[in-house]
Amino acid sequence: MTRDLIVGIDGSDVAQDALRWTLRNTPDPAATVVAMAVWRVPLAMRLLMAKRSFDVDRLGLAAEAHHTLDVALAATADEDGVGAVEPLVVEGSAGAELLTRAHDADLLVLGRQGDSDLQHRLLGSVSRHCATRAPVPTVVVPPGFDRPRATSVIVGFDGSDNASAALRWALDFFDDSVAIELVAAVDLSPWLDVESTIERFPEQVETERQRLLTAAGRVDPDGRAVRTVVLHGPKQALAEACAEADVVVLGARGHGALGAALLGSVATWMLEQSPCPVAIVPADD
User: Fold this and answer.
1) What is the pTM of this model?
2) What's the CA gap between 11 and 47, in Å, rounded?
3) What's the domain count of the chain?
4) Is 205 inside a domain boundary?
5) Could you tell me if residue 146 is inside a domain?
């Protein structure tokens, strides 16, 4: 049974970009896309309410959230490919409510808010919070992204179980018309150039290359995903690969303790800087 795809709507243009991306890339036309707006009483009002005997216009705040949804739905009304868009307004903390609803969904899609440091701290926290904690894959769409249905997908791969989950999700979510490329980075000697690394560490390079290809083969035995193994750090490898991609897919964690920290920093960098949407996929249960 097809479950919901949740899109966070907050009145921003990038939230409309996220809804538009979801409608264009939903794999199942029978799926229900839930456009979800979350509202709550602002902190300043809550503090005043605690000190003084007055209430706040909750109906007005809820009505504003409904209007926000109406605007987003009107802006994306010409998009085809999905059976239904269901508006949903709830009261609470945006991050908490989105995560709660995601437990009964297949995908969570959010816009990447803010380009300045201050905006990242104030507005981007919800997308980062959800991307690192959601029980389902979370797609974060950058501001101004307005491409047709995805045709090119990059999967960051390090051979770990979580990277395997990311590859498995990409193969399942995107149909056979979409080109999928697995990009695996071998970073044995970051202080050396590629030619020197191959010359000085040929056996280690080949061993790591075979490990990565073997791990990929277990997930994708038919070889649908093109395998690309590069002698770069993962950040450089993904930055170069995503320049022409429509979506980048990453696992939530890396390989081992050191790998987890490294891939975590790369995923954070990609979420904040990628020119295309980034999907963060949690490990398989």
Assistant:
1) 0.85
2) 25
3) 2
4) yes
5) no
